[in-house]
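[Solved] Which block belongs to which protein?

Original post:
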Amino acid sequence: MKRYLLFSFFLILPLFSIAQKKKGFLFFKINRFDKEGKYHGRWKVYFGKDDVLIRNGRFRHGREVGTWKYYYPDGTLYMKEKYSRKSEMIKVEKYHENGALARKGKAVMARTYTIDRYYWTGEWEVYDEKGNFSHTELYSGGNLVGKK
């Protein structure tokens, strides 16, 4: 009898997750807040009447962690950000609408008590629409200071 109930539970489980596509199931819920009201856990941001996914990633007590993905309205990948646990440095890859790599570099998320500031820094590799390397750009504090 226990096996039958357990088997039935696992058969029904996918039906709940499909019906609650945006909410998740049990402890796998998305778009949650912690006790202090900060973003926490898996977050998916949808846009428009067709509910197009435009942003997907994880928060840990109000801070982005791991890999975040951003999408064009047609669903192709627009940008990927990889957050570091040990520094404010973020690895960034941006893509053309055809899916080819457009640019690659690093950004910084400078957080203060009153404001968060996101800016590009260091060398950025730039690629053409076919994904071929074009040139390198140098950023300081979010400002373009040179090209190679």
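(Second protein starts here: sequence line, then its structure tokens.)
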Amino acid sequence: MQSDRASRTRRHRCRHHCTPTSCSASQQRQLLDVLREQYVELTLEFFSTFRLRRGDLTAATAIEFIIGSALHHMSISQFASRIGLYTEAEVSLPIFTDSLRTVTTREAAYGITQSQLMEWWPTIADGV
């Protein structure tokens, strides 16, 4: 599904053969207005479809989302490095991969139970 705004942006770029640095001020404004509308549309699409799957967070399908009408799957490590939270080197360290946990209904190697979480949570507060 492609919006009219997306096609207008492509037409603008093709018709004027410009980049934001070579456009006139009015052309820059027009281009940025269209891009801002696309940004909102893509952001809403991403956040409304983002899903963290239960189970192994290192699995290649741990995260699922749609952006630009395309379905994407990736692990937590891939997602963290692609959005710039961590570098590729950081997400490959055992301190990162060993700390990935999900809340489970029963004890599992990849998760913690709700009761374990409730015991742990107050220990990270200031002054405790």
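Accepted answer:
You had them paired correctly. Confirming on the second one: Residues 1-20 have pLDDT under 50 and may be disordered.
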